[in-house]
Amino acid sequence: MQVRLFPALALMLLAGCRSSQTYSPTAETSSTAPRIPVLYPETRKSDQVDDYFGTPVPDPYRWLEDPDSPETKAWVTAQNKVSFGYLEQIPFRTKIRERLTTIWNYERFGVPQEEGGQLYYSKNDGLQNQAVLYTQQDGQQGQPDVLLDPNKLSADGTTALAGTFFSNDHRYMAYATSGGGSDWQQYKVIDLESRKPLPDELNWVKVSGAAWYKDGFFYSRYDAPKAGQSKLAVKNEYHKVYFHKLGTTQDKDKLVYENPKMALGFRTVGTTEDERFLVLYLTDGKADGNRLSVRDLTDPKQADTFTPLISSYEHNNSVIGNIGEQLLVLTDYKAPRFRVVLIDPKKPQEANWKEVLPQTGQKLEGVNQVGGYLVASYLKDASSNIKVYTEAGEFKHDVALPAIGTAAGFGGKRDSKTVYYAFTSFTYPTTIYKYDLASNTSTVFRAPKVDVKPQDYITTQVFYTSKDGTKIPMFITYKKGVKLNGRNPTYLYAYGGFNISLTPSFSVARMLWLENGGILAIPNLRGGGEYGEGWHKAGMTPNKQNVFDDFIAAAEYLKVQGYTNTEKLAIAGGSNGGLLVGATMTQRPDLCSVAFPAVGVMDMLRYQKFTIGWNWAPEYGTSDTYAQFQNLYKFSPQHNLKRAAYPATMITTADHDDRVVPAHSFKFAAALQAANTGPRPQLIRVDVNAGHGAGKSTKLQIEEWADIWSFAYLNMGLNPYK
Fold first, then answer.
1. What is the pLDDT of residues 486-530, one digit of tens each?
2. Which of 217, 237, 384, 669 suits a disulfide with 263, CB 3.0-4.6 Å?
3. By the 8 A CB rule, do 248 and 200 touch?
4. Catalytic machinery residues
């Protein structure tokens, strides 16, 4: 959906306004907080009521689900006018934006990839909206040249480079771009010798990569939306795999795999480095794993068939690479913290598997087959622990890391001697290292120069007790000298879902909070992947309430231990984390003074009806079955708002978010504004030409973070520059 500005007359007719609610401090808030009046637009209520197994559920804001209707567009414009009008009156907002611009202005590098003796890596000079792709002709010693500058692809810098895929002969590079933050991608190709683009152009690509094979590549796509369907809201069905031959148009692409009897599920592929095997990954939108099948591309008898390796959808499986005729597979089958096994496609039965890396007490996050080694990335209490093994599974050594934090990268070829990786932590700016596999030594390749002093800060990890007695880890970062007097502004951020591990990372935006005496707290809630599939399942349906309990317990711990109090606490999360914040504030509106639900899944009864929402069914369950409806109805933020005094809330979303469609945030904002009985503001901030988060331009990021921190400080009664 695109938000378009409407003339004032249209706003008056379609949006209207209701009696104002004025923000003013009460006994619950700081007396130093200024008063800024808020006039919310009138939001029409319909008489829509749905029947779920005999339970009537009103949905008065159903009309906001249509992103293209003039009424929805006018409503968004009116809400933005209120929100930005409020934010513009915050006296220190400009200073925060200026400081963010200053500290954001530093060189940032991506992890290099070596192809045919040349290095390819991304770099942002500082305030460029998108990182630029560079190449160095003679590896690390060469002079960098610009290969592709996404900033030239759109006037406002909102077209992002979403992926690069090099052919195995190092001659071509396919690349994906996305516009305005959408998950839809367009694929094009560059000839790396001439540096000229090829005419190839592929559209309607989503949840894909480019798996090279000889004179083309395999990829996944959907059919184009039908006339009248919104490409940003239509339910995505019938994912298909195609092969694209270089120099041909997309309509000539060969269909490789489809399942016309199964509308839901992803179908994606990869090829091994030697291009011998084509690996097919299948999900069904119901279970939490994937099937794994393979085709030997050297065998003419398998020209149109795939051999199943793992037929169950219940486990997560991925091919690391191959050793001759056998495949190295990372799996959580009979290993909830993952292991590596060797499977012969000619004898794929479990009895014939050979275990290469057994499960350990630590979660195995990923494995790279490179230079004759296996570089394994483990998690030790949510921090990286990197180990190197031979391809036969013999342990060689640990990779020494600079501190407790997150290491990522280590990709390369079977003949690579060196690889590159990035290391980061909460106050350790992302630094790129070159790693020699044989000597086990790391040297700095690129180190950023940031206008902050990491040595001025402390990061600790604590373990607190959740409602049911489970111990939950939490990282806490703050400036040295901060006194734990129970009055420190604290930003509590979490995710808790989809087997995603929330590990330490550097954020220049969060440094502004820390340098002004704020505390950053990041707990590793159940539902995440920090301790393997058992930890994940403890926060999935029907156990989702555990995630909210873990988050609430984190907030209470911070208060009891003297870090902060209710009036100085902000809670935040995005996507599944937006759901977390929405559910928490509806269950405990008294928990904090400020809430930031970002691009959240707020309507748990209808999420599966939009774009790829059906893919979240294994995580949440759906309202299509009675037991799961009952569970969802208990915590769905949209359906649990009641007349109460809520924390100051700024909902953030974007008009091009086609993953968690903005209707979730629209409906939640309308219901929250109607339900709130307290004096604190309830705003929604809608970015234009932005999406779920990936590829957001530097300009938009700075503006959004300036508004987040300004809103937080104001509603905590603080001025960071006074």
1. 999 999 999 999 999 999 999 999 999 999 999 999 999 999 999
2. 237
3. yes
4. 575, 692
